[in-house]
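Box 3.1 A note on notation
Throughout this textbook, protein chains are presented in two layers. The first layer is the amino acid sequence; the second is a token string describing backbone geometry. Keep the layers aligned when reading.
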Amino acid sequence: MPANLPQIYHKIEGRLKFAGTSEEKISIVKEMLSVMPKHKGTDGLRAELNSKISKLKKEVKKKPQARRLDMNYVPKMGIAQVVLMGAPNSGKSTILAKLTNASPEVASYPFTTQKPDVGMIEFENVQIQLVDTPPLYERFHPPWLLALGRISDVLVGLIDGSKTNPEKELNSLLSRLEQGLIFLESRDYYTGDELMKKSGFVIISRSEKRDLGPLRKKYGDRLNFVGFDLSSDVEALKKNIYDFLNLIRIYTKPPGKEADFTEPVVLRKGATVLDAAYQIHKDFADKMKYTKLWRGDNNPRQVGPEEVLNERDVVEFHSR
């Protein structure tokens, strides 16, 4: 039986060549496993990848610097991991405090954040992990810090809008990221293969002091810019982050009962009915007979396993 691996699997696999540490490789391989279809055709590859993870974990234990690297490694939680990166005093800690339940030290002087700080964004009925990182600057861009950006699901750059030359600040940030083999883009822009394409956008903090028009005009083909100050709509920024994750939420409905809208099944855009069934349970998918789908109305229709799902679809699985 062929593996029939999805395109997203090969995209994630391509990031392995940019990984700088064993921890980073482990994170990428785990992500490859998470998007791999679960059927007999992938059993061998799944076993191979799990074996690779075991070998990498042994390498981590052997390395003398592993303890230090492990201290700065942030395990993923929630439906996805979003990492903030920027220059000193660019507003990263303020964003973390505004969007999550975390209480980072926020001060007007630079270098307040000395290690990764973590909080959880609550967006409707899902949680997204938000990671604030130490500042990137000319003499500080260590491998472990840039590795956090590479393994993130979305990378958000921070620029201080009160600075006299925000374009210079942006170019400096993009240059620091490229030293870590990261090309930040909001849409499909980069055509090379020397850098790892990383989906994300740029927040301009203290945006009340800055007209974003010139930046959007010059970099709009590559990047999205979001202004943020203390009066900004926090919920709008949360939605912006969620939209960039390229995920969908679908809901299950047991036959003869109401749909459960409290705990969605979270999938990547482009996922099918069969993908949803496998995420719930392998045996559940193997025994699936047919599926009813509700989309935007109260009139269900019967669909096959290859039906592509949309955000907020409701599915009712029937087993053999």
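The chain has three domains: 7-68, 75-244, 247-319. Residues 201 and 224 are 5 Å apart (CA to CA).
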